[in-house]
Structure to design on (722 residues):
């Protein structure tokens, strides 16, 4: 086996090493079953324990009461973009969206395709999505207000979530779920593709407030109704067992090794301060997001030229730092430092950035 | 680590041991990337090679020409039940279905929900789905004819596929894909949840004839259009990387270790003869499917009483034979003997069945 690298991929992303080691050690025989976790029946006690543990850990970590269901639905956040308006839009009432970049725009597009009355009540498109909008007016009769809590491509993040009074918030939290504690009360639905902060690709976690389930229309296809998943503990059909199992191990690591979300938030804050302070004292590197909108998960920055950026990414990889290229739609550089990227990874990155600047600056 | 059992689960089901061992050996470092296959970007060359290899192996194994696309779509066969009528039904033309049990019925239900003109042109419901219908008349103007090639719950299988002239066949092959070679020409679409014969749960393989793509309506949600998956090599959004990777290893095992589908068919034939010959010579065990409709994948049988069936399942597990309970909807016993269950598993099962009969018969 070769050496593990520091993995700054935006998603799929780094997983905690102890999680990978546990999967590896029991891959041929899950808990004495004589089968791999990929081979046990989803109707068995073995798997029931796994999925229920993942749900309980999610509820404990986020402080969710019994008024929330935790669901696992395949198809990523992208399938949620269409399921949300299908299930949660109310007759003759608009759906509100805030546009903070590519992923918000995709969510808006899928509501549009369905002919919903979409109100984009705020957007940061005027300055290439470099900031989180501060001014917005929620439609009085909105079905919900949708926003994206962290924008992987533009490197921005809502430091404080928007307020919408009694209108339920709906949030794509794919890239910062479990990175900090928050009050779930104003949320009707929270969803997150697993492959950034909580597991491998192949499943979205959907947290739905139970009163939202009453909105699901009867005539939807079974696999597109939240009620189908809620009524069968996400096992109307076979779920992605290996992905849910891995999510549970990541959540266990969060609870038992990290020590919960307050602690995780503190570590993520330290990581963010280190890298942004370094960028701010440098004339060579330049952050792309407004300071008050910066993401603690995805650090986006530019170098003086595209040639230097290419060289930076290539030399980084040679030094064991992978995934530093910006999203193909925007260019530049990006270091994704999700929960599983520790202080050591950020320090290694800063060391490399310092050396590179000395050599090329 | 404990001992591996003989796994007769209906799905998720046994995987070839060499496949599991390969996953285990490279779980922390995929091909020198310094990352797990769960951590590499789906936009990287590493994963591109994996998905393209899986597609090429599928095409070689099934003898598919360039007129077919191979897609990977999350949500299992159950999501396909709704995507098929959404994408492939033609205006003012019926959709034909043959009902051979639970899974056919679910496919029919999803076409009904969408208000399609569903013609169930044949059914074996009159005798509890114990046989494959021989008589049916395809609607002259049908959009397609849908059938289920193998019925896991009732233990029946189409020995020869139905003919429908120029009407494209659409087939749920979840439980017998890659178990035998066949001529793909009459098929407009073939789909299979991976978790029975080709991998772990979490992805359906969809094989679509390219002319079918012209039927997709423009106004469908992006994630429910076959054209979205076809146009982006199944990577419009992040696919289930670990599942596609495992499918590729199973297909590699089929090609390189087993030696292709003719060879696989021969082995499956031997396994089927062994177990059915044993059942037929016994007065204690009784097969539930008509002889000419028997499945080579799922062997369903009864014992003289439900108490004996319970005892049989429990003692089997003690002897290292797992998953012998029939589906919760029908009771009885069932041994699923997919590709990854070898002759040794079937022989061990027959030995146990003989001993049990001697003791209890």
């Amino acid at each position: 086996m070769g050496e593990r690298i520091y993995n700054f991929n935006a998603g799929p992303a780094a997983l905690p090493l102890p999680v990978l080691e546990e999967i590896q050690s029991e891959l041929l025989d899950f808990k004495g079953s004589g089968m791999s976790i990929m081979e046990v029946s989803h109707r068995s006690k073995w798997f029931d324990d796994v999925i229920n543990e993942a749900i309980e850990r999610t509820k404990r970590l986020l402080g969710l009461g019994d008024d929330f269901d935790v669901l696992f639905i395949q198809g990523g956040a992208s399938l949620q973009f269409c399921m949300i308006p299908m299930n949660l839009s109310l007759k003759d009432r608009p759906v509100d969206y805030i546009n903070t970049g590519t992923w918000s725009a995709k969510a808006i597009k899928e509501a549009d395709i369905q002919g919903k009355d979409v109100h984009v009540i705020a957007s940061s498109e005027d300055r290439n999505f470099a900031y989180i909008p501060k001014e917005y007016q929620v439609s009085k009769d909105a079905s919900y207000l949708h926003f994206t809590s962290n924008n992987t491509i533009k490197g921005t993040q809502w430091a404080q979530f928007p307020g919408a009074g009694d209108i339920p918030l709906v949030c794509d939290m794919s890239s910062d779920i479990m990175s900090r504690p928050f009050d779930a009360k104003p949320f009707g639905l929270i969803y997150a593709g697993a492959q950034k902060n909580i597991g491998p690709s192949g499943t979205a976690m959907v947290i739905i407030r139970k009163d939202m389930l009453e909105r699901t229309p009867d005539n939807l296809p079974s696999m597109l109704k939240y009620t189908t998943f809620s009524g069968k503990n996400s096992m109307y059909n076979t779920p992605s067992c290996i992905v849910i199992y891995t999510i549970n191990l990541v959540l266990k690591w969060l609870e038992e090794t990290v020590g919960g979300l307050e602690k995780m938030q503190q570590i993520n804050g330290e990581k963010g301060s280190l890298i942004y302070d370094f960028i701010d004292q440098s004339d060579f590197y330049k952050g792309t997001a407004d300071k008050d909108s910066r993401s603690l998960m995805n650090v986006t920055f530019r170098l003086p030229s595209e040639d230097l950026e290419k060289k930076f990414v290539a030399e980084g990889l040679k030094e064991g730092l992978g995934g530093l290229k910006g999203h193909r739609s925007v260019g530049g550089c990006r270091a994704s430092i999700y929960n599983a990227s520790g202080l050591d990874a950020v320090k290694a990155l800063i060391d490399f950035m310092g050396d590179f600047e000395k050599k090329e600056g």
